[in-house]
Amino acid sequence: MRKLIAGNWKMNGLLAELEDVAAISEAVAAHPSVDTALCIPATLIRPAAGRFADMAIGGQDCHMAVSGAHTGCVSAEMLADAGAKLTIVGHSERRAAQGESDADIRGKALAARRAGIAAIVCVGETEAERDAGQAEAVVLHQLTGSLTDDATGDWLSVAYEPVWAIGTGRIPSVEDVAAMHAAIRAALVARFGAGGADIRILYGGSMNGENAASLLAIPNVDGGLIGGASLKAEKFLPIVAAAASA
Ligand code: 13P
Prior knowledge:
The chain has 246 residues and is of the alpha/beta class. Helices cover 40% and strands 15% of the residues. It has helices spanning 18-28, 42-48, 76-82, 92-97, 102-115, 127-131, 135-146, 174-192, 212-216, 233-245; strands spanning 4-8, 35-39, 56-59, 86-89, 118-123, 156-160, 200-204, 223-226. The radius of gyration is 17 Å and the shape is globular. The relative contact order is 0.16. Bound molecules: 1,3-dihydroxyacetonephosphate. 1,3-dihydroxyacetonephosphate (13P) is lined by residues 8, 91, 161, 166-167, 204-207, 225-229.
C-alpha cells in the first residue's frame, strides 16, 4: 500500500505562507512513491490548489449539508469547488471544542464522498481513557460510529491520533501503536471484508523527522497525519523521506 503523509496546518497560515506551501510541494516531489497532502485553512485552498501539482491540497473540516443556513460553515462541495482533493473530519480538536459526535463525523465523511473528495476520519483516546485501560474500546467505538457503510480505501483513510500525543512531543510506544493499528485493521476487515485491508490507517501525534522512520515501520501504519512538523518544508520533508524508505 502506498503511504500517505498528510499535513494539518490547523489555524495557521496567511497568504504570505503560500511560499511555505510552494517549498513543501517542491520538496515532496522528490518522493513520488509517497502520496502527500497538505490540509490548510479554507481561505488558502483556492490560491494553493492548482498551483502545486505534486501534492494534494485539502481542508480540515466540512459541514454535512450541501448548502443552507449554517453561518460560518464550509460545505464539502465548497472545498471541492475551491480545488481541495480531500478533507480531514473528526479531528479531536473539533470533537472537543465543537462537541462533534461520531454521527456528525459520519455525516461529514458522507459529505466528502458526495462532493467527490477524500476524507481522513480521525479517532483517538484521551490520556485519562488510556490510563483507565479504555483506549482500544474508545477508539473502536469512535471508529464504528464515524465510518460510513460504503467506506473504501480509494476515498477514505482513518487517522489514529491519541489526544495526549498531539502537540506534546510525547508518542505511544511502538507496541502500543502496533496494537491499536492492528485492532483498527481487524475492525475494518470485520466490517468491510477484504476492502477493509485497503483502507489506510495513519498515525498522528508528535510525528517528526526523528521518530517517523520507527513509527512508519510498524505494521498497519500506512502513513502519518502531521501537525506542527508540516508547517515548514525542512521539518516535513524528512517525514516524507522516511515514508519513501519504509
Ligand atoms: P502534532 O503533529 O503537532 O502533534 O499534531 C498532530 C495532529 O493533530 C495532526 O492532525
